[in-house]
Structure formats: C-alpha cells, structure tokens
From TrEMBL:
It comes from the Bacteria. Pfam families: AAA_14, DUF4143. InterPro entries: AAA_14 (IPR041682), DUF4143 (IPR025420). Residues 15-127 form the AAA domain. Residues 197-370 form the DUF4143 domain. This is ATP-binding protein. It comes from Nocardia macrotermitis.
Length: 423
C-alpha cells in the first residue's frame, strides 16, 4: 500500500519522508521508486563518511528521486535537502527513510512545503495475504453496506489458533517465508536488538538492556489498556527490590519515561489517544492513552509467549487481537488520512476505536475476539450507547470487528471478521 502512496506523493512534493520501525520494509519500497540510492547506515568501507566530511553535497546528486536511507545517520541532511528542494523548485527529488527520530535540533527548521511525511507500519493482514478483502474500509465510509456472507468451512478452534499465529508472527516482511516457530524466534531477536543496541544508540545515553527489557515486558502486559507510566514504574521498582537493588519511585518513573521516549522515537511504541468529541452530556472524558506497540508481535516476544500459549489464554489474546486490529485499521485508513482514537467517559463507557477523517466523518468500532451472540450483543449495546452521547452527527458507520467467519449487519451495525477487511 505504501508503494501507491509514495508514487502519488512524489508527484506533488519535492521530498518525501517515510518513517517507521526497522524491518517494516521502508528501504525496499523506497528503493523500487528511487533512481539513486544511498544506504547511509551501511557504510562498511567508510565511503559515505568520507563523502560527508569532504563533499556532502554529492549525497544529493544523481538521478532523481534520490533515496537517503536512514537519513538520521547524518542529521544535517535534513536542512541540506530542505534548501535543495527550495533551489530546484521541482517535485519528486528526494525520498528519506528513517527508523528513528533524531533530536529536535536535527529538524529544528521546518520542512513545511518541502517534505511530505508518510508513516509505514508492519504489514496488515490484507497485505500479508491473510485477509480476503471482501469488505472495504473506504467504501464503508462512503455508506456501503457489505453483503452478507458466511464461510461454510469456518471452525472456531482453527480460527483461534490461526489468529494466535498472526499475532505472534506479526506483519514483518522478513517473516513471510518463515514457519511460525522461526518467525517467533526472529521477533525475539528483533526485540533483543532494540534493547541492547537501538535504545542506547538513539541519543547516546547509556542504559541497561535489563531495564529496557523490564520496561518493555511491563508495557506488554498492558497492551490495549490505559496502563499508566506509574504502574510500569511500580513493576520496575518491584523487580529491582526483588533483585536486591535499591531504588525509589522517582528513579523508576524517570527510567520508564526515558525508555518509552526512546521507543517512541524508534517508532516501536504507537499509543492510541483518546477522542474528544462534542457531547450532549457533561460526562468527563478520559485522556490517558491506550498502550500499543506498532505490531502486537513485539509484545508476544517480550512476554516470551507462543501461538500455543496465547490460544490457551483468551484474555491475553483478546488484548493482543485488539492491538492487531488497530494496526490494520491504521494501515487501511492512512490513504484516507484517517486517525485512530478510542472513546472512554467517566461512566466507564468505552469504544475500542474511533476512526476520524479530515472532513469530520468518523466511525465507531468495537473489537471482539469472539463471534458469540453474547459478545456481539455487548458490542452492539456499547456502540449504541456511545453514539447516543455524541452530538456529532457525522458518524459514517458503526462496526464490530471479530475473529469470526461471517459478514453480516445487525440493525445499523456491521459485523466484520478482520480476515475479510481491506482498505
């Protein structure tokens, strides 16, 4: 999907910045479109460093678009590209990719009018070939009602096992040709690389990989919940005390804050903010974000879980399934410039995801791992109660996303298996 977005954006922007976590496919997608490629973090013979020190402008020369892969390796490139776009007054000149956000000084001069920014995430189920695409999110926003369809071969146990595998494997392109066991091992190595290499390198601050592992593990236990940083700090401090180390609450909270900041800059953490609509009632809304990694497989790796253990733990799998659905909704809504929020008020009324488009249209979506009558009934009541509270009439649709085997409509609410959703 990012390939089409990149092609479209290069037609009207002088430079495009693609941001996303390592190993999500940024370089491959950008290289397919680029005419000149500089792999800035793959400088085995020191050639790039020598050019940077003696004639940095050469990195901007060549047939366009010029790809500057992992541009943050040389943060000064940001302003060089900005000036070059101004001088050339041409579109489609540069593509920059980055798996880490450098410090504010590197981008202190705005790229407004020169840079377009695209976010790239791990693959959705549709992109990895695990969704039929029978239901289009964009057409739902246009008011289309999906036709009723039932999978005659659907089996509840097989569906549970299958989604547990998809949560554990994740949407990483490098896992496509691996079996499930090897993919899970690859994800564990990925997480260790983050903890041992990427977090310390993001800002040059020395950090213990053990502390990073504890923070990420605690965060993983709170996936798809409004877990506070204080709770994570408490987990961290309790672990330190158990290990015989001394610490206090302030020290633990500072460790949590700095590690989460690093993970956000690495595009590994992507929290879900609360939606602030206009309301008929005076109910106070909750603002603490819900916790998510950019892909639920990161949480699985941090917890040391497997598809088998997840299938035997529906509560944990339910939270991870919600995170997987959010990942896919973010991918599918990106061409529409949609943003994903959640809704929760002081009366504990909560809707898992609110998708909001720039023109004001929005959709209310509940996520249920189960397709049982009780689960669907609960979701329908929640959606109806929430829309009664919101004064904004631009609700395009309401839906329940499940792991079931049937597409249907109940009243004005669509019930859609995630394995049949597409952009």
């Amino acid at each position: 999907m990012i390939d089409r977005e990149l092609n479209d954006t290069l037609r009207w922007s002088g430079a495009v910045l693609i941001e996303g976590p390592k190993a999500c496919g940024k370089t491959q997608s950008a290289a397919q479109r680029a005419q000149t490629v500089w792999e800035l973090d793959n400088d085995r013979n020191g050639r790039v460093q020598a050019i940077w020190e003696t004639d940095a402008g050469r990195l901007l020369d060549g047939a366009t678009p010029v790809l500057l892969d992992e541009w943050q390796t040389y943060p000064g490139l940001w302003n060089m590209v900005r000036h070059e776009v101004d001088d050339r007054r041409a579109k489609g000149q540069f593509v920059l990719t980055g798996s880490a956000t450098p410090d504010d000084d590197a981008r202190r001069h705005s790229g407004a009018g020169r840079f377009a920014v695209l976010s790239m995430r791990p693959m959705s189920l549709y992109e990895s070939g695990h969704s039929t695409g029978r239901v289009s999110l964009s057409r739902l926003f246009e008011g289309e009602t999906p036709g009723r369809w039932v999978d005659p071969d659907w089996d509840a146990r097989a569906a549970l096992t299958g989604i547990a595998e998809r949560v554990a494997v994740g949407g990483w392109p490098g896992n496509l040709d691996l079996d499930t066991v090897d993919a899970v091992r690859m994800n564990q190595e990925y997480v260790q690389l983050i903890q041992h290499n990427d977090i310390p390198r993001i800002d040059g601050v020395r950090r213990s990989p053990d502390v990073a592992a504890k923070v990420m593990r605690s965060f993983s236990r709170g996936i798809a919940t409004r877990m506070s940083e204080r709770t994570i700090a408490c987990d961290l401090r309790c672990g330190e005390l158990a290990d015989g180390a001394e610490g206090d609450d302030a020290t633990s909270r500072n460790a949590v804050n700095t590690h989460l900041s690093a993970l956000r800059r690495l595009k590994i953490v992507e929290d879900q903010d609360a939606w602030q609509p206009s309301l008929r009632s005076a109910r106070q809304l909750q603002t603490t974000p819900k916790r998510h990694f950019v892909d639920p497989s990161i949480a699985v790796a941090c917890l040391g879980a497997s598809p088998r253990t997840l299938a035997d733990d529906p509560l944990t799998l339910g939270h991870l399934f919600e995170s997987l659905v959010l990942r896919d909704l973010r991918v599918y809504s990106q061409p529409l410039r949609g943003r994903a929020f959640f809704y929760r008020d002081s009366k504990q009324l909560e809707v898992d995801t609110i998708l909001v488009l720039p023109d004001g249209r929005w959709a209310a979506i509940e996520v249920k791992l189960s397709d049982s009558a009780d689960a669907i009934g609960s979701a329908v009541r929640t959606l109806d109660a929430m829309t009664e509270q919101v004064a904004d009439s631009r609700c395009a649709f309401k839906a329940v996303i499940t792991n079931g085997g049937a597409i249907r409509t109940r009243g004005d609410i669509h019930i859609i298996p995630i394995t049949h959703l597409a952009p």
